[in-house]
Amino acid sequence: MQVKKTKYYSCKAGRLARGCQLCVKGEKLVLFVTGLCSSRCDFCPLSDKKLYKDVVYANEMPVTNINQIIKEAKLCDARGAGITGGDPLTKLWRTCFCIRKLKKGFGKNFHIHLYTPLTLVNKNNLKQLYKSGLNEIRFHPKLDNASEWKKIELAKEFDWKIGVEIPAIPGKENQTKKLIDFIKGKVDFLNINELELADNAVWRRKKNIKCKDNISYAIKGSEELAKKLLKYAAQKNIPTHYCTCKLKDKVQLAKRILRRANNVKEKFDTITKEGLLIRGALYPPELVPGFGYHDKLSKLKKVEKKKVLNNLKTIRNKIIRAEKIKAGMIKVDENKLRLITSKAIVKKIKNKDLIRAIVTEYPTFDALELEVELI
């Protein structure tokens, strides 16, 4: 099997799994069903706000019900979903419920894949996932627990695609090759991910961990090992994909963001070719973006948020009357507690109660700012 470069900053041997084909087009909803997990992998990429916490996210949006998940999928024009965690099997009922509802809402061709370690894998759990409509299962075996690897074979009783997905961990070449030897003939594909630095307490305790350069969060040595493993798997005729950090950011995330931007943009927004939104914003003085801004927003109590929002609505009405602005051209942003308008209009507004700015931000639920220019 020949190793080839892809146009997605990655390399492959054989055909990409269906889930990957949709991911590289930005067509997959990322459904994080829980941060709970019993595996405690020391390479876990989750941030502290998700690690070992029972929280649910649809892409960047924290959610509490299935309607919010479906709404986010629609906003991104998703053609499928990747279910992840934590370990989705720790909340199996929730996971199966989401699969069924997504299939019901978007049809049987809505492709769903799921990631899970082997800890909770058994015939009954796999049967429930399959009956719910799961199309593709991806196992995360521990390299130092070969006795669990045989659980992968349980998945062959069901008519779905089976894969193994692992990071390329520097210093673990021999162990990973043993795993590759084991899965030959037992899986439909292998995915090897470039190991990346994570913002969590587990990683912060590690010593002598270095990124490969000053602008990347990819771990030094992971790429070189991944390419060796890719060639090794290709020699065994296992369809394999080496997925880089660059692919996740510059392709998968970027394309998903562009799809969402076209659905969530306001008529006064400007969209860049990357799908970023450029808009005018007016902030209460105590909530101007800066160090700890998002933490401050998240920690506000309901009564405090309500007070800020009521004040913003009053100021908005005053601005509309004073500046003779059409009501649809200036709105209250209830998530980030600010007013938003066009770049041109914000420059004209004269109001001493709010701080004016021109912002460039992602079209995601959290609307993460890339640039804030106070004016």
Structural class: alpha/beta
| Mass-distribution shape | elongated
Please identify which CATH superfamily of the largest domain we are dealing with: Aldolase class I
Mean pLDDT across the residues is: 94
| Major sheet characteristics | 11 strands, mixed
The run of helices and strands is EEHEEEHEHEHEEHEHHEHEEHHEEHEE
Number of strands: 17
Question: Could you characterize the architecture of this molecule?
Answer:
With 375 residues, the protein is an alpha/beta fold. The chain has two domains: 3-260, TIM Barrel (Alpha-Beta Barrel), CATH 3.20.20; 267-374, no CATH class. Helices cover 33% and strands 22% of the residues. It has helices spanning 18-23, 66-75, 92-106, 123-132, 173-183, 201-204, 222-235, 245-264, 293-299, 302-323, 343-348; strands at residues 3-5, 11-13, 28-34, 57-58, 61-62, 80-85, 111-117, 136-140, 161-168, 189-194, 240-243, 270-271, 277-283, 330-333, 338-341, 355-361, 369-374. Helix 3 runs parallel beside helix 4 (123-132) and helix 5 (173-183) packs parallel to helix 7 (222-235). The chain is elongated, with a radius of gyration of 23 Å. It starts with a strand and ends with a strand. The model has no long low-confidence stretch (mean pLDDT 94).
